[in-house]
Specification:
The complex is a heterodimer.
Chain A lengths: L10 E4 L6 E3 L16 E2 L5 E2 L1 H7 L5 E5 L6 E5 L6 H21 L5 E11 L7 E11 L1 E2 L4 E4 L5 E9 L9 H7 L10 E2 L3 E8 L9 E4 L1
Antiparallel strand pairs in A: 1-2, 3-4, 5-6, 7-8, 7-14, 8-13, 9-12, 10-11, 10-14, 11-13
Chain B lengths: L1 E4 L6 E4 L15 E2 L5 E2 L1 H5 L8 E8 L1 H4 L1 E4 L2 E4 L1 E8 L7 H20 L4 E15 L10 E15 L1 E3 L3 E5 L4 E5 L2 E4 L8 E2 L2 E3 L3 E6 L11 E5 L2
Antiparallel strand pairs in B: 1-2, 3-4, 5-8, 6-7, 9-10, 9-18, 10-17, 11-16, 12-13, 12-18, 14-15, 14-17
The chains are: A alpha+beta, B mainly beta.
């Protein structure tokens, strides 16, 4: 771990769009990511704060990419490929883009696109664990949300917890316990453009890649 | 506490002595300007639209925040990162502050003109659900019976107080939600102190006792006149 000196600051300048101070959570931070969301460095070296990045993510969704050493997947912001001028232009139209997206999906409040479904048996007489990985198209999902599967809302389910979309740890009761403990539960939510994994504990969940999960 | 008089409204005020930094927002403070003049917190409210608090993180020694370490019988404060709230008003002279008041009034009028019929407006950042009812040390999480949702916002103009109803206009219809509590939010971390109002130029967390899935990042929350 890096040694810090008294008086060191994490101030990296200002957001090129709104002027917010750019701060990256130190590596000994208790909770990551920080509430406002980590900032991103744009293609021309300027910074975009977590708040502005959040607005762009629905158009430039987050992806997970393998680290250069090939050991783990980490989030990659596609918005980082924009330069300052492009980012500002996109931000001007971000709200219209969101409204069009809501209209396209029947004005549901939040929509998640399923990309992968893993099922693990929960044990004798226990429901199975469904790990559903994909992208939030728009809106916010939190643990314990009641959601509908598919646009017609035929099946209802409750999200047990959120998980790292590329976790290498097999899902178990401990995952749900950890994901909903009182220190972390308020810190977990998935919002528009983020890649996330939802864990459901259901006897049967009729889900396949390409399906939508809806919250109203 | 040092007794002073506000250089703007002549009200008697107290200036708190400098303490060990702990990064915790302790309410809006009276400010000592660069030239030594003091200004009360009420007078500084009007210029926050142009001079918001700046938030960063600073590495400090702070016993009150991180505790103490004993080395060979000597006690010394532990080190760690705190939220550093920097007040840009401390860099102004009294003359500059008076000019800032005029500029701020114009800025508030310009902003208000963008939202006709509104008493206050704020831009939403993110919304999360507050699940836990208490932070007691038992192992089982206590979920709140209430549906508590928190939207972190930046106030563009006016004042937002508990009890206000905010309206959010979307393509399909207009949604409304009642603000139950207002908390100070330092932009970087969790909201951590209830305050009586959020005013122009400040970031704040608005608590709702209802689900607010219709509030998206960048949405404008409007408190209507009357």
């Amino acid at each position: 771990m890096k040694e810090y000196e008294i008086g060191d600051t994490l101030n990296l300048g200002n957001c090129t769009n709104c002027g917010n101070v750019i701060v990256i959570e130190p590596d000994n931070g208790l909770f990551r990511p920080q509430r406002c969301g980590n900032p991103v460095k744009l293609a021309d070296g300027s910074w975009l704060c977590g708040s502005c990045l959040r607005k762009l993510r629905i158009k430039y969704p987050q992806e997970y990419r393998m680290t250069p050493n090939g050991k783990r997947m980490e989030p990659y912001e596609r918005a980082s490929e924009l330069n300052e001028k492009e980012a500002k232009q996109e931000l001007e139209h971000a709200h219209d883009y969101l409204e069009d997206l809501r209209e396209k999906y029947g004005f549901h409040q939040a929509v998640f696109s399923v990309e992968k479904v893993d099922v693990k048996k929960g044990g004798f007489l226990k429901p199975s664990f469904y790990t559903v990985t994909g992208h939030v198209l728009y809106g916010t999902f939190t643990p314990l949300d009641e959601v509908s599967i598919g646009m017609n809302g035929a099946q209802k389910a409750k999200i047990s917890c959120l998980d790292n979309p590329h976790s290498t740890v097999p899902v178990s009761d401990a995952t749900v316990q950890r994901g909903t403990n009182k220190l972390l539960i308020d810190y977990s939510w998935a919002e528009g453009g983020e890649e996330a994994a939802f864990i459901f504990q259901e006897k049967n969940l009729n889900l396949k890649p390409g399906d939508l999960i809806i919250k109203d | 506490m040092e007794k002073r008089v506000c250089s703007i409204c002549s009200r008697e005020i107290e200036i708190a002595p400098a303490t060990e930094p702990d990064g915790v927002f302790a309410g809006w403070q009276n400010v000592v300007l660069k030239d030594g003049n003091a200004v009360c917190s009420t007078c500084t409210e009007s210029v926050r639209i142009l001079y918001p608090l700046r938030n960063s993180k600073t590495f400090v020694e702070s016993g009150s925040r991180f505790g103490y370490i004993e080395t060979r019988g000597k006690s010394s404060p532990k080190k760690g990162w705190i939220n550093a709230l920097v007040d840009p008003l401390e860099e102004l002279t009294l003359e500059e502050f008076k000019q800032a008041q005029i500029d701020a009034e114009n800025a508030a009028k310009t902003m208000a003109a963008r939202f006709p019929g509104a008493r206050a407006a704020a831009e939403a950042d993110f919304t999360y659900r507050h699940h836990t009812a208490s932070a007691r040390t038992n192992h089982k999480t206590l979920y709140s019976d209430k549906k508590e949702y928190v939207t972190c916002v930046k106030v563009l103009f006016g004042e937002i107080r508990a009890g206000d109803t905010v309206s959010i206009a979307h393509k399909d219809r207009e949604y409304t939600a009642k603000v139950e509590e207002v908390w100070f939010w330092n932009y970087l971390d969790s909201p951590h102190r209830a305050i009586d109002k959020a005013f122009a130029g400040t970031t704040a967390a608005l608590w709702f006792h209802q689900d607010v899935p219709f509030i998206y990042p960048g949405d404008i929350l409007v408190v209507k006149e009357g």
